């Protein structure tokens, strides 16, 4: 066999294939396996090293442990407000209702959350959440979540082993990247990928597939995301015929590290602000009081005295503006820096040292203490941190049915960050960990049900050979180095599709991206197939490209500012745009963008809000309207890209 032998393919089969071993993938795997299905979980990185493990602050669930006034209705309201009412209301409803059960269930799997004085799961404050709501383990919550789900999977494998069928029903394959999905007659039937360590190909036949591949953050240079987040699941879904929703909404977390340059973008958890940290500019001013938008004035304190009282008496005071939703805080920091009140390294100060004791900081924020000491030689118990916005999360993603997590392609499901709709135009902190538990479980359940009703699919030699040839193409190309092309794409996105956007710049981005296309098609890989990061990136680039184009197109189309999409040339929210989702599909190799109506909330859910609040987001006739079916709505229109 030559190094580039396209015939050396490992053949596998299962009922439910799960692509991604973060929280969403692992929770789906538990559910599908408990439903009696054979399951394979594939992970691009080492098992246990998914993004979820990096989550710091916690998982939002209205358990009411710290403030008994909390309940799912309040959580639902906060989530819709955070998303500026563009959320898929049904997803937000299911999420708020089911998150507490998913957290308690984790305890039955062995999770150990921090406790309140009376022994309940402790819950902390976070931006946009009315009550303390984030179940946490210090600032290492994601680690506990992944550890627990892995432990659950191992215990299920041990059951199988005892029955003499180890790995028959649950197999985990890490360091393997899926590059293609196979479809037949509009339904998925398997996937193709390569083992990173050897470069050997793998073809897996499966009637049901769950995409749980996380986000797209690596399309930007300054990001909290790690190397794996290249939009693979988004692009795989599109190539299989599914649609992406609202890709313009990208969350720039307000607080990433800004110094030294080698660590720029690494996250500084919102828990620092939840636990009392405040933002100051270079003049020492606590500036967030100047940036409270009209729609949030009723809930946020407009003076430091009231804001500080809130930490001990939240029932009688309004919240500090440092805890506004992330999009608001990120924009405020951006403005301060732009107006010359930033720090030496282009950020602002985040100060908890002058407000909390060193012991408190070390106990509540051990990872942050360690991170700043090790990476920046800053002792956060004695000095302020320098922070600035960093690309963190994509609200856009695969369009799914809210109850079943099914995409428009039969047998293809999606959960976690790769799916769209749940968070509307902006995600609240803590709502991702709960989202991936709620919808990971649902995706696993419905994928298992789909597999039960399907025939075992067969993969053909021809389609496997075509996928192999495709994957090997960079070795035969004579173009550019993949790292140079990634830099070029990151530069376009950072400069022209970043936190503040303008129509002219977005057009420029699309032109520059289009010019990059042929260079990406001709990207070159050198060397052999074993552990070859250049080859791996060469294959990832086409995914990053298609996601970048979908984002820039949707950002140009939506000429309003909402959540994680700020148009300097179209400031403010437009109630007409609140009724519209932008849906991207692939057609003739290009991205196609369509407008679809946002499903309207049921009267029961609308009734959870004051009319005065709804009037800030909606047109008057909407308050009393009932659900619209997008597929039959005549106002659906489309635009084509180049
Ligand atoms: C530093 C940091 C802190 C955060 N803190 C919080 C927090 O406190 N609370 C909160 O709610 N959210 C937080 N988030 C966001 C949250 O962690 C993520 O949104 C969430 O973990 C995503 O989970 P997931 O299961 O969807 O995907 P991930 O955990 O991102 O896992 C994706 C999986 O897919 C695999 N994969 C990707 N592409 C392929 C491919 N082509 N083939 C095979 N496998 C593939 C990856 O290897 C990985 O296993 C934080 C994010 C970061 C970066």
Automatic annotation (TrEMBL):
One of its GO terms (molecular function) is steroid dehydrogenase activity, acting on the CH-CH group of donors. Residues 487-601 form the Fumarate reductase/succinate dehydrogenase flavoprotein-like C-terminal domain. The active site is at 326 (proton acceptor). Gene3D superfamilies: FAD/NAD(P)-binding domain (3.50.50.60), Fumarate reductase/succinate dehydrogenase flavoprotein-like, C-terminal domain (1.20.58.100), Succinate dehydrogenase/fumarate reductase flavoprotein, catalytic domain (3.90.700.10). Residues 15-433 form the FAD-dependent oxidoreductase 2 FAD-binding domain. Residues 617-642 are annotated as: Disordered. Its cofactor is FAD. FAD binds at residues 20-25, 43-58, 232, 417, 432-433. Substrate binds at residues 253, 269, 392, 427. Keywords: FAD, Flavoprotein, Oxidoreductase. It holds the Pfam family FAD_binding_2. Residues 625-642 have a biased composition (Low complexity). This is Succinate dehydrogenase / fumarate reductase flavoprotein subunit. It comes from Glycomyces harbinensis.
């Amino acid at each position: 066999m030559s190094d580039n032998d396209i015939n050396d393919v490992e053949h596998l089969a299962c009922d439910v294939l799960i692509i991604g071993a973060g929280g969403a993938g692992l929770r789906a795997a538990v559910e599908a396996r408990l439903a009696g299905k054979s399951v394979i979980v594939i992970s691009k990185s080492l098992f246990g090293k998914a993004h979820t493990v990096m989550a710091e602050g916690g998982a939002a669930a209205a358990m009411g442990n710290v403030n008994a006034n909390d309940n799912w209705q309040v959580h639902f309201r906060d989530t819709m407000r955070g998303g500026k009412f563009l959320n898929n209301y049904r997803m937000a409803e299911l999420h708020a209702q089911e998150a507490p059960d998913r957290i308690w269930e984790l305890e039955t799997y062995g999770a150990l959350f921090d406790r309140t004085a009376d022994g309940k799961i402790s819950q902390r404050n976070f931006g946009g959440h009315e009550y303390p709501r984030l179940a946490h383990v210090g600032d290492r919550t994601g680690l506990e979540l992944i550890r627990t789900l892995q432990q659950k999977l191992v215990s299920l494998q041990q059951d199988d082993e005892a029955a003499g069928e180890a790995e028959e029903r649950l197999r985990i394959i890490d360091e393997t990247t899926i590059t293609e999905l196979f479809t037949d007659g509009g339904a998925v039937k398997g996937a193709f990928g390569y083992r990173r360590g050897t470069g050997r190909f793998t073809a897996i036949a499966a009637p049901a597939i769950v995409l749980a591949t996380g986000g797209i953050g690596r399309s930007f240079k300054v990001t909290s995301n790690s190397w794996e987040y290249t939009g693979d699941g988004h692009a795989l879904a599109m190539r299989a015929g599914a649609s992406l929703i609202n890709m313009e909404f990208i969350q720039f977390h307000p607080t990433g590290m800004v110094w030294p340059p080698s660590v720029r973008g690494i996250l500084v958890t919102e828990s620092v602000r939840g636990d009392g940290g405040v933002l100051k500019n270079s003049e020492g001013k606590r500036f967030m009081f100047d940036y409270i938008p009209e729609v949030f004035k009723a809930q946020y304190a407009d003076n430091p005295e009231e804001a500080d009282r809130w930490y001990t008496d939240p029932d009688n005071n309004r919240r500090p503006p440092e805890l506004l939703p992330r999009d608001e805080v990120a924009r405020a920091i951006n403005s301060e820096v732009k107006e010359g009140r930033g720090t030496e390294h282009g950020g602002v100060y985040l100060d908890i040292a002058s407000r909390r004791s060193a012991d408190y900081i070390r106990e509540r924020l051990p990872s942050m203490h360690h991170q700043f000491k090790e990476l920046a030689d800053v002792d956060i118990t004695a000095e302020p941190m320098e922070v600035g916005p960093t690309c963190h999360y994509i609200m856009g993603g695969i369009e799914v049915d809210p109850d079943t997590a099914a995409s428009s392609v039969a047998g293809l499901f999606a959960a976690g960050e790769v799916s769209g709709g749940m968070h509307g135009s902006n995600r609240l902190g803590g709502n991702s960990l709960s989202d991936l538990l709620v919808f990971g479980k649902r995706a696993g359940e419905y994928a298992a049900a789909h597999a039960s009703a399907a025939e075992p699919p067969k993969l053909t030699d021809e389609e496997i050979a075509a996928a192999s040839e495709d994957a090997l193409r960079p070795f035969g190309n004579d173009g550019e180095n993949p790292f140079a092309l990634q830099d070029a794409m990151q530069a376009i996105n950072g400069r022209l599709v970043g936190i503040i956007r303008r129509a002219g710049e977005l057009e420029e981005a699309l032109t520059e991206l289009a010019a990059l296309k042929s260079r990406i098609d001709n990207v070159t890989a050198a060397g052999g197939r074993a552990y070859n990061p250049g080859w791996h990136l060469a294959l990832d680039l086409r995914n990053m490209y298609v996601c970048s184009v979908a984002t820039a197109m949707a950002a140009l189309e939506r000429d309003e500012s909402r959540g994680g999409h700020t148009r300097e040339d179209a400031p403010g929210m437009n109630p007409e745009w609140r009724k519209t989702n932008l849906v991207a599909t692939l057609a003739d190799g290009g991205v196609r963008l369509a407008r679809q109506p946002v499903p309207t909330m049921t009267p029961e859910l609308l009734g959870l809000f004051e009319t005065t609040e709804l009037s800030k987001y909606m047109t008057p006739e909407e308050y009393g309207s009932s659900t619209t079916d997008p597929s039959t709505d005549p106002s659906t229109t489309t635009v084509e890209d180049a």
